[in-house]
Amino acid sequence: MNALCSTCGVAQPPPPSGARSKSSATAATTTTAAATTEEVEKLQKGIAELYDESSGVWEEIWGDHMHHGFYDPNYNNKKDKDDALSLLSDHRSAQIRMIEETLRFAAVPEDPVKTPKNVVDVGCGIGGSSRYIARKYEAQCQGITLSPVQAQRANALAAAQGLADKVSFQVADALNQPFPDAQFDLVWSMESGEHMPHKAKFVNELARVAAPGGTIIIVTWCHRDLSPSEESLRPEEKALLQKICDAYYLPAWCSAADYVKILESLSLQDIKTADWSKNVAPFWPAVIRSALTWKGITSLLRSGWKTIRGALVMPLMIRGYKMGLIKFAIITCRKPEYVVTTTTSKCAVENL
Asked: Count of CB atoms within 10 A of residue 32's CB?
C-alpha cells in the first residue's frame, strides 16, 4: 500500500463501475489515529447537532447557501462598510459565483444535450446548490445530509420554490450512500469533505455512485501540501487545526495532494485541482462582521452553545489562511466511460 500523509491511505482501486472496497489496513493521521466506529458515530452525531442548531441562524443572515463565496482577489471587503445591505448582497452574489466557477472549472457542459440530468449533492446543507443546479440544467437532484433539520428545511424550500418534482433531500451517511452504483452524471460535494473521517472511503463512495463518464466535484478545506522532507505538519499547525476541529466537528485534515492520490488510485480521469484560498479570503471577515451585528448576536444567543463556539473560532480560520496552513481546494475528475475488469487488489483503501 502506498502510504499518504494525514487521513489518507491508498491502494489498488475497485472497478469504476462502483464496487465498494473492503477494509485491510490502518493509516496514520495528521493529528490522531484513524477513527474507530465509535469515534465516527460520535463525530457524526456532533455534526448533525451542530447543523441542526446553526442552520437557521445561517439562513436568516446569509440565505440559501452554506458555503464560501468566490471573490476577485482584489475585492475590498471594507468598501461601503456602512451599507450593510450592499455588503450582504455582495457576499450572497459571491456564493452564487462559487457555484458557477466550480461548474466552469470542472468543465460541466453547457450544451443542453450534454448537461447533467441526475445530480447528487453530498453534504447538501439546506439545499441551495441542488436547487440552483436543478434550475440551471433542468436536472433531477438528490441531496443528503446528517442533519434532520437541514433535510426538512431543504425539502420545504424546494416545495416553496416549485422544485419539489426536481429535488429531494434525506438524512444519510456520505460514507454509505443510499444510492445504487453508477446513478449520477454529476456528483457534487461543496464543503462537506472536511467532515469526513475516512477520506478514501468518502471518495470511493463518490466514485461508486457516479455514472460512467460522470463528473465528480470536491470543494473542501485542506491543509497545505507537505514538502518532500516533511512527514507531518508542524506542532503549532496541528494545534491550530485541532482547535478548529473541536469547534466544527472535523476529523483530522488532509491535503489536496492526498485527494489527488486517492483519485489516481481509483483510475479516475481528467483530475484537476486548484487552490482558491485567495478567492475566498474576504469570506470569513464578512461572516465575522455579520455575527457582530445586533441581528447576528441575538441569533447566536438564541441558537445554542455549539453555534456560539463555532463563531468564537472564526478568527482562527482567518489566521490559518493567512499563514498558508489552510487551503480552500477544488478537486475535480471524471469517471471512465469503460468498465475495468481487472481484479481488485486485497490491499484496498481503509480507515481513511
From this structure: 15
The model's pTM is 0.85
Q: Which residues contact 85 (CB under 8 A, 6 or more apart)?
A: none
Contacts of 282 (CB under 8 A, 6+ apart): 69, 71, 75, 77, 91, 94
Beta bridge partners of 274: 330
Q: What is the mean pLDDT of the chain?
A: 85
Is-contact 137 113, C-beta < 8 A?
no
Q: What is the pLDDT of residues 52-106, one digit of tens each?
A: 999 988 888 788 999 999 998 777 655 544 455 455 568 889 999 999 999 999 9
What's the confidence (pLDDT) of residue 29? 35
Q: Looking at residues 293-302, what average pLDDT do you find? A: 80
Burial class (CB in 10 A: 0-12, 13-18, 19+), 343: exposed
- CA-based nearest residue to 334, from 214, 244, 208: 214
**Going by C-beta distance under 8 Å and a sequence separation of 6 or more, which residues neighbour residue 183?**
118, 120, 209, 211
CA distance 265 to 107: 22
Distance CA 215, CA 207 (A): 9
User: Could you give phi then psi for residue 326, rounded to 5 degrees?
Assistant: -90, 130
Distance in angstroms (rounded) separating the CA atoms of residues 271 and 329? 13
CA atoms of 316 and 240, how far apart (whole Å): 7
Integer Cα distance of 29 and 27 in angstroms: 7
Would you state the pLDDT for residue 28? 33
> Hunting for cell 456564493 — which residue is that?
95
